[in-house]
Specification:
The relative contact order is 0.21. The protein has helices at residues 41-44, 47-50, 53-58, 60-75, 81-93, 107-111, 172-181, 200-205, 236-244; strands at residues 2-3, 18-22, 97-101, 116-118, 121-128, 137-138, 158-162, 184-188, 213-218, 230-233. It is built from 9 helices and 10 strands. By secondary structure, the chain is an alpha/beta fold. Bound molecules: 2'-O-acetyl adenosine-5-diphosphoribose. 2'-O-acetyl adenosine-5-diphosphoribose (OAD) is lined by residues 23-26, 28-29, 34-37, 40, 51, 102, 120, 163, 189-191, 193-194, 218-220, 222, 235-236.
Length: 256
């Protein structure tokens, strides 16, 4: 692992395929709180009560209040320079770009990202808790001020389309395939505390073919830092535009 070493941009050659994993840190400069920072969401809320199937069973109103607040905050925020830099890279290299976000907000899409998945679900969607076969619905309502939980046509409750702890992340087959064929893995703004996302850097090293080059961008080293080829310390919105734009390199400072 090298920290803030040269070169000052990530060179993407014509035969490279780029897999990007983002976490809450990429939305921090848009004003959305991360989970594990000192003022993060898990400092003010107990994970078990708002982000587990057991919490939902015990108090669905509280769970809907929590995600309704997240909806309001996401609606009031805008994509930042880091979201736009990734969308620009996708425009430049087309389907050799793949984005996997742990974030449930829609800031990547609003910045223009298209070839992407939300492995932990999507804030602005709801689904039947009984998996009755009804489609997942677009849903931007805030349910704070109602006492009844929204109901599916089948009579069961509607729940947020969020992957809670103890549930299986979404799109894992596609994610595994994309990691297998990437030559560059860029991870942005995630603490490396939650698996399987925290394992992607390891998967990229043992993929079929040569190990991918792996980069992490964020203000502090993640828990899995030692697995990366290179760690670039700094805020995503300040670092990513220069890193991903050949011809407009941003000089990287020494170790911070
Ligand atoms: P965390 O809160 O665990 O980590 C956020 C990371 O973002 C930290 O490592 C910060 O250093 C970094 N960070 C803060 N500001 C940043 C900035 N401006 N630019 C870049 N990085 C910055 O959030 P995640 O790792 O995303 O899951 O959390 C993973 C999962 O745990 C979430 O998807 C969520 C949570 O519980 C579910 O709810 C299922």
């Amino acid at each position: 692992m090298s920290i803030n070493a040269s070169p000052d941009f990530i060179e993407v050659a014509d035969d490279d395929r780029v897999f990007v994993l983002t976490g809450a840190g990429i939305s921090a400069e848009s004003g959305l709180r991360t989970f594990r920072d000192s003022n993060g969401l898990w400092a003010g809320h107990r994970v078990e009560t708002v982000a587990t199937p057991e919490g939902w069973e015990a108090n669905p109103e509280l769970v809907w209040q929590f995600y309704s607040q997240r909806r309001r905050e996401a609606q009031a925020s805008q994509p930042n320079a880091a979201h736009f830099a990734l969308a620009e890279l996708e425009k430049r290299i087309g389907d050799r770009f793949f984005l996997c976000s742990q974030n449930v907000d829609d800031l990547h899409e609003r910045a223009g990202s298209r070839n992407m998945v939300h492995m932990h679900g999507e804030l602005f969607k709801s689904r039947c808790e009984a998996n009755c076969g009804a489609p997942i619905i677009e849903d931007s309502h805030s349910y704070n001020f109602i006492r009844e939980i929204p109901i599916c046509a089948c009579g069961s409750r509607l729940r947020p389309h969020i992957v809670w702890f103890g549930e299986t992340p979404l799109e894992m087959t596609r994610i595994q395939q994309e990691i297998d064929r990437c030559t560059i893995l860029l991870v942005v703004g995630t603490s490396g505390a939650v698996h399987p996302a925290a394992s992607f850097v390891h998967w990229a090293k043992v993929r079929r073919g040569a190990p991918a080059r792996t980069y992490y961008v964020g203000p502090e080293e993640p828990l899995n830092a030692s697995a990366f080829t290179r760690i670039i310390l700094g805020k995503a919105g300040e670092k990513l535009p220069g890193l991903l734009q050949p011809g407009e390199p941003t000089a990287l400072p020494g170790r911070q």
